[in-house]
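Quick board copy: two proteins, each given as sequence then C-alpha cells.
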Amino acid sequence: MILKAVLLLGCALGISTFPMEEPEDGGKHWVVIVAGSNGWYNYRHQADVCHAYQIVHRNGIPDKQIIVMMYDDIADNEDQPKALSSIDLMAQMCMLECPRTIQRSHGAPGLLAFPDDDLHVKDLNKTIWYMYHHKKYQKMVFYIEACESGSMMNHLADNINVYATTAANPKESSYACYYDDERQTYLGDWYSVNWMEDSDMEDLRKETLHKQFQLVKKRTNTSHVMQYGNRSISSMKVMQFQGKGKKAMPISLPPVEKYDLTPSPDVPFAIMKRKLMATNDISEAKKIAAQMKAYLEVKEFIQESMQKIVTIVTGSTEQTKQILSDRLTISNYDCYQSAANYFKAHCFNWHLPVYEYALRQLYALVNLCEGGYPIERIFLAMNRVCLGN
C-alpha cells in the first residue's frame, strides 16, 4: 500500500501521514506524532503533540490512522497544579481520544535524543531511503521542532518525494514560548505553535504548504525556519497532509500578550529563575538558589571537560579555539556518531536531566571529525579527561 506521510518531529518529535479520498492521492494516509521528551520542564513538548493531534482529529483523520507517541508523565506529575485533575488535563490536551505510547527527544547537531537512545541523521537518512526504494510512501513531509533541527535534513535528497521544514538551521537553538505561572513551565515551542496556530486559523483546503512555511518563517523570528528536500511538494494544499477539514472550519484564537520566548537549552534555568522570583518563602528560595548554583556548576564542568578533550586531541591552543568556535556541517557521519556515543557512554549521559547540557557541546565533536582527527585519538582524550586514564 502506498502511503502519503508527514513527519512532525521535534523537541517534540513526530511523524504523520493523513487519509484523503481524492482519487489522485491513490493511497492510504497515516498520522504519527511523537513527543520526544519527558519531565515537567518539558511539558511543552507533550502539549505540542496533543495540539497536533487535535488539529488532525478535528480535520477528519480517524483515530485508527493516528499514532501518538508520548511519555505520558504529565497528567499525574507531582508538579501538576492540584486544582486541575489529571483527567481534566488529558481531556483538555487530547480530548480523551488521543492514542498514546512512549518516546522523547531533544536536538543536537545530527541527532535527536530520546530517553534511552538517540536518532542519528545517518540512520534517519537510511530509513527514508529504505522507505523510498520499497515504495512505503507516496509523498512525505516533515515538521521538525528541535535545536539544530536543520542538521537532520540539510542533506535530504530532492528527488525522493520528501519535503521538510525545521524550527532552526543546523547551528542554532529552537525556542520555547508561553510560560504559565500556575504550572510553572512553558506551554509550547515557538515554531510548532506557529505552524499549528496557522493550521487552526487558516482554511487548509486553500492554503499551500509553501504559504504556511512563509508565514511560519516570518513569525518565528527567533531562529531561521528552513525548508529542505523536494520543494515542489510545498505547492500542495495543507489539507492533503493534515486532513480534509470538511467539518472543521478555521477557528479564531484569543490574543496573547506575552510570548515569553526562551532558547530551549535555557529552559530549565529560566524556570528555576522564575520560581525564585515568584516565591516569598525564604527556605524555598534558598532551595531554588542552590539548585540554580548546582545547575550552573554542572554546565561549566561540561564545557571545561570538552575544552580539555579538544585541547588533548589538537595539541594546540590555537586549533582548540578554532574547534570550539566553528560550526561545521556534518559529512563524516561515522566518526561523529562514534564520538558522540563514546562521549555519552564515558563522559556525560545526556539522557540524565543533570547532564542534558552535554548536547550543546557535541558541535565540537563534529568539528574534530571534520578536521580529520582520528577517532582513536578522540577516544583517548575522552578517557584521559572523563575517566582519568
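And the next:
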Amino acid sequence: MPDADDQARPEAPVAVPLLAPRDGDVTPVVDPVELHAWRDRLAGGTDPVALDAERASGYRYTARAYLVQLRRPDVGTALFDPIPLGDLSILDDVLAGSEWVLHAANQDLACLAELGLRPRTLFDTELAGRLAGLPRVGLGPLVERMLGLQLSKGHGAADWSTRPLPQEWLTYAALDVEVLVELRDAMAELLQAQGKLEWARQEFAAIVAAEPPAPRVDPWRRTSGIHKVRDRRTLAIIRELWRARDDLARRRDLAPHRVLPDSAIVAAASAAPATEAELVGLPVFAGRMQRRSAPYWLGAITAGRTAPASELPDVRAAGDGPPAPAKWSAKDPAAAARLTAARAAMTELSERVQVPVENLLAPDLLRRVLWQPPADSGVAAVAAALAERGARPWQVELTAPVVHAALAARS
C-alpha cells in the first residue's frame, strides 16, 4: 500500500485566500415562491450537490439547522433559511438522484433530515481525508492542502439563530460549499491512487443506510464530574436537577449549560441543601437569575433527597457490552491479553495502510469480539462475527486476520 503522503498533493507554498463567492453576495431564501424557483433551477442541473448546515450549538436547546447552504456548480449557490420556510422537503426529489457532498456528514444529516432532506448517495470529504491518512482533516486544512485555497475562519461556532444574519456570516457560509465539489474530486483522485476509493464508497454507503441512533438511556449520567460521585442519594439529586434543567432549557430553547452548568448541579447534589438559604449560599446559585429560580431548583433537590431507596440509581449504569478495558485484567486475564495483542496489531496495521485505528474498526466492535470470541476460532468465523456487528467488507478483509491472530495467540 503506497504511503498517503507519497500520493497526496503537495501543500501550496502560499495558499490563495478565498474571500468571496463566485456568484457574489448571496441572500438567504426566505420566500416559498423563491424556494419553488430554486427547485426548478436545481432540477435542471446534473453536477453533484454540496451541502452544509449551520446550527446554534451551545446557544439553543435543539440541534436544528438555522441555515442550509447548497451549491450545484452548474446552477449556483443558494442559502436557505429554514425558520420562515418551515422545511425544505420540496427540494428532496430533485436532489434524490444526485451525489451529495458534505464535510463531516454525520454532523449535519440529522438536522437536514428534520427539514425533509435525505441523501441517497454521498461523499464525505472529512472521512475521505481520514481514509487517505492525511494529518489534518478539517475543511480548511483539506482545502488548503488539496486545492491551494484558504478559507476564512471565525463564524462556525456563532449563534446562527441570530436574525438578521450579518453579511460576513453569510459570506462565510457560502464559502463553506464554494469548492466542496472540487475538493471531492481531488479527494476521490487521491483515494483512487491509494487503492482506497472502494473503501470510501463502502463507508459512505454505510452512513446513508444507518438508522437514527436510539435515544440515550439515562442521559443525566453524562453530567460532567459525575464520575467522582459514588453515593446513590447524591446521584438521585443529580438526576432530578438534570431533568429539571432539561425541562427548563427545552421550554426556553436554550442550551442546557446556559440554564445551569454541570458543575453547579454536582455541587448542589453534593451539598444537598434543605432550604433556599442554603442553596443560594452555593456558587452559581447566588447569582440573581438563579436566586429567582431557587424554589424550582430546591424542588428538584428535594425530590432527589426524598426519593424512596428502591428508586435510587445504581452507582454505575448497567451496560450490554464488555466492561471498561481497565477492568479486563481483574475480570478476565485471558481477554485482557487478547485485547493487548489486538491493539498492538491494529496499531501496526494502521501505520501500514495509513488509516486511523478507529476507522479500521470501531473500538466498541473490536472489544465485543475480543471479550466474547466466536466459538469457532477460525478466521472465517472471526470475519463473520465482525460483519455481523457492522464491519464493512473492506474492514473485515483487513482486520479479520489480525483479530484472529490475537485470539489464536492468547487463547
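Board note added afterward: The mean pLDDT is 94.
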